[in-house]
Write a structure and sequence with these properties.
The protein is an alpha/beta fold. It is built from 10 helices and 13 strands. It has 2 domains: 156 residues, FAD/NAD(P)-binding domain; 169 residues, no CATH class. A hairpin with a 5-residue loop joins strand 8 and strand 9. It is globular.
Length: 360
């Protein structure tokens, strides 16, 4: 939150926030405590979802079982999945926010399979109130306090331009890593990493924990699974493939990245991974035992043995405690995992808000 005492004089100044996602929303909400209007610059549309829907946090709509169903369709019918996902998300936005003003340029949005959506309760209402003004991308700065946008609009008396444009994996810190460029690809060179973690030449001693867009699960707590997987590989608990096999996988993966760049060059992220493949590898290497959830014979066996935990871990709150619940022999379990999973589900028992009731 901005201190009003340190922001005197901003009432007559123009502030530009670049971006239209979660971070941009947080910054704008803070700025509007000290200035009546903020200019939001963005080059393309995007899906923006509420963090709460019908009195329930949106995160609670994401469960392990739903992730596995999505992963199944992503793997086997990616085109159909993308079509249904985009149609469904467009309907979700319109059903929650109502009609969107074309002047806001939130639509058309890039496919959700190529660009992560944002989460905000305030962007659309503030656009509707006129407290946010949608602007095109910034073309250049002209003069000390003037900004020209891509549509030719010039905004004068600009006090600050704040970039909320996210982050990408930048591996320039490791210049010794091999790079290559697949055929028919015009983007930046791609670093050769097996499973987006291991450089084949140094796989026995170097591992990179990249952002791995579209490879996250349960937020950044999934880095814990990556750490367990890498530890098991370095300890010899889980084998690495041969350098030849790793390089063959990288060639195929780079072709997939090239197809993403051609489809959406503006939002391209070289650290993207195939979620279903990436997560399955890490769970196998880490020995989390999450294959005991689902519809396979291991899933049914676990359901028969412990139906309560099967329901909670499949359909309840998605919590990283589950990654240390099953005994697999590859890593230590945690004795408190069961109670923690039960308590997490009890803690989020929420009830829909009554008409007119406000969130704190």
């Amino acid at each position: 939150m901005i201190d009003p005492g340190s922001a005197k004089g901003l009432e007559d100044k123009n502030i530009v926030v670049v971006g239209m996602s979660s971070t941009a929303s947080d910054i704008i909400n803070s700025l509007l405590t000290v200035t009546p209007k903020v200019y939001m610059s963005h080059r393309r549309g995007g899906y923006v979802f509420p963090t709460w829907r019908k009195g329930v946090p949106s995160d609670l709509n994401v469960t392990w079982r739903r992730r596995q169903i999505v992963a199944f369709f992503q793997r086997h019918v990616p085109g159909l999945y993308q079509w249904f996902a985009d149609k469904g998300l467009a309907w979700f936005m319109s059903s929650h926010w109502g009609k969107l003003d074309p002047a806001w340029r939130m639509t058309p949005a890039p496919p959700v399979a190529l660009s992560l959506p944002g989460a905000s309760n305030s962007i659309v209402p503030l656009l509707r109130e006129g407290k946010i003004v949608s602007m095109h991308g910034i073309r250049r700065f002209i003069g000390p306090r003037s900004v020209e946008f891509d549509d030719g609009t010039v905004l004068d008396d600009v006090e600050a331009v704040i970039c909320a444009t996210g982050y990408t994996a930048d591996l320039d810190v490791a210049p010794f890593l091999e790079q290559s460029r697949p055929p028919s690809y015009a983007g930046p060179k791609l670093v050769r990493l097996w499973m987006n973690i291991f450089p084949p030449k140094y796989a026995d001693s170097i591992a990179l924990l990249c952002h791995s867009a579209y490879g996250k699960n349960n937020g950044f707590s999934f880095n814990d699974v990556q750490s367990m997987a890498i530890s098991n590989i370095f300890r010899g608990v889980h084998p690495l493939p041969s350098p030849e096999s790793m390089n063959a996988w990288i060639d195929v993966h780079h072709l997939w990245l090239a197809s993403r760049f051609r489809a959406e060059p503006l939002g391209f992220n070289a650290s993207a991974v195939k979620t279903w493949e990436f997560q399955q590898f890490l769970h196998d290497a880490a020995g989390t035992g999450m294959e005991k959830l689902g519809y396979g014979w291991k899933g049914w066996k676990f359901f028969i043995q412990d139906p309560k935990m099967s329901r909670l871990m499949n359909n309840g709150v998605e919590t990283a405690h589950a990654f240390r619940y099953f005994e697999t022999g590859k890593r230590r379990t945690w004795e408190g995992a069961r109670d923690a999973i039960i308590k997490a589900n009890e803690a989020v028992k929420v009830y829909p808000l009554k008409e007119g009731e406000k969130l704190l």
